[in-house]
Structure prediction request, 284 residues.
Amino acid sequence: MKRDFNKWLSKFKKSISDYNYYVDFEKIYKNVDKLKVELNILNSLIGSKNIEEKFQNILIKYPETLECIPLLLAVRSSEIFIKDEINEYLFKFDKMVYSMKDYIRFMKESGLFDLLQNHLINNLYDYVLGIEVGLDSNGRKNRGGHLMENLVESYIIKAGYKKNVNYFKEMYLSDIEKKWNLDLSAMSGNNTSTKRFDFVIKTDDQIYVIEANFYVSGGSKLNETARSYKMLAKEAKNVKELTFIWFTDGIGWKNAKKNLEETFNELETMYNIDDLENGILEKI
Prediction:
């Protein structure tokens, strides 16, 4: 029986976020603790009246404190590029590549001396902790993807499959070809594709390659994803030993439903979380 796309779409979830989705505090504490000693040394700059001289003395005696500077500007790198009216600089903070005068100028022009000298903060450890929380929020997109993968994997296990026995994570097309002696050139552009699937399930007579994703918000990427998976669905039909399954969900699709519907009409094995909850893996 032909499925109703709109009815299927209406069951999409708003979110699958757990408590750890928003901030990974364990990772944050670990990152900040690596710099705890250096940050406490730099704390002596807070409220200092002769901050340039004190900064210079600190770098001479404790050169490793230089590594903290990028993070004070919410930069996760040991290099910062600067272009002013005259010159271009690539400041390195794992070692000094310019003069002390240049690094003092960097601190002054970037606003860090003003931040420290005018006592706008009380403790660099707490300040960096706040920066790490902000930077970690950028990882929510990746965590969201992992949440959907973890959810799908829980249902794969529930259906009776065992990891590295009859289900596998993150396999490339080339690995699938080698492991089960298959010709997947119809899906790989004559071995030019580096496509990797989130999961692969092997049964007695079929190999199921699986993609899993969840979208909270819309965007052009969703349309491109739907189009690429539509093409993948067509290519998979040329390999009788293989079935392509796509698990997707999330209200982000509501604004990209046209392309999603086109893929839905092309790919019979396209499912959402509601399908998982109703035992679709056991059925197929």
